[in-house]
Amino acid sequence: MHSLDTYLGLAERRNTQKSYAASIKHFEQEWRGLLPATAESVAQYLVAYAGALAMNTLKLRLAALSHWHQEHGFTDPTKDRLVSQVLKGIRVAHTALEKKAKPVELDQLQQVCDWLDQDVLADPAARLPNLRDKAMLLMGFWRGFRADELTRLTIEHIEVEPGIGLKIFLPWSKGDRDNLGREYRCPALSRLCPVTAYEAWLNAAQITQGPVFRKIDRWGNLGATAIQAGSIIPWLRRLFGLAGVAGADQYSSHSLRRGFASWAHASGWDLKELMEYVGWKDVGSAMRYMDTSIGTLQARFEKGMPSAPKGATQEAAPVSVRQPRSPRGKAGLRVIK
Prior knowledge:
Order of helices and strands: HHHHHHHHEEEHEEHHHHH
CATH topology of the largest domain: hpI Integrase, Chain A
CATH architecture of the largest domain: Orthogonal Bundle
Helix content: 40-55%
Number of strands: 5
CATH class of the largest domain: Mainly Alpha
């Protein structure tokens, strides 16, 4: 039987609980703040870390303080006008370009997969971890999964349709506020195929239930528990570094998601189609993940430029940016029928 506390605990995401606990600890131990807090003390707390912490981090700290006061029956000081005005002033005074994860491109994806395949030939002991890493990389990219979604995949919730794709069920995700669960589909492709990589990993690992992507120790022993979401960034950077990808330390757990969104945008997907596939609920969230390369912009500008008059000197030859088209009219890879 589940207790009342069990259900109350499940009502909040584990990551949210950890973030809020860390924020309260920072307020009390690092800044020496007292709880319950006043609006003045919260405002001073914001001032103390203005510029040192990102705006999103400050907002998270406020959310944690707000939650603590509501949970303990106190008046929420973060709703005071003084706090909102101070936060607005900090935003104006410390305007900065939002840092974004470097998107993974198909060339880098191919480079890493090629390296993983070659490394297995050179070192048979690397077969198991390399097959796992290849499946994680390709499923993370083509499905646009967040780190926590990728590490929470279970074999029981994935159905393989050979030559067609994968049906993946997630009981909950960040965008699923009502915890209704959602089914995702991932197609089989002519190359860099996530379905083939997934099947190869399961066959090698000989697992039939539980977490899909598990820990493997230094001696090659496969564990029973899933990889932690917090380990995705160092895993990705290490993998890219070993494969010789330039700027490996610039990639993060959002790089796979941003890479897919940028690829789909450049390949002609409309925004509604992309939002439905990835699971975004609002346009703003989707737009933050999409990048348009300078080469693509140049091609669009040149397409609309009138022909130069005869005899005119051409300053620079336009760069030709060609996007191969698939049978569906999308650029990039061919879906296996």
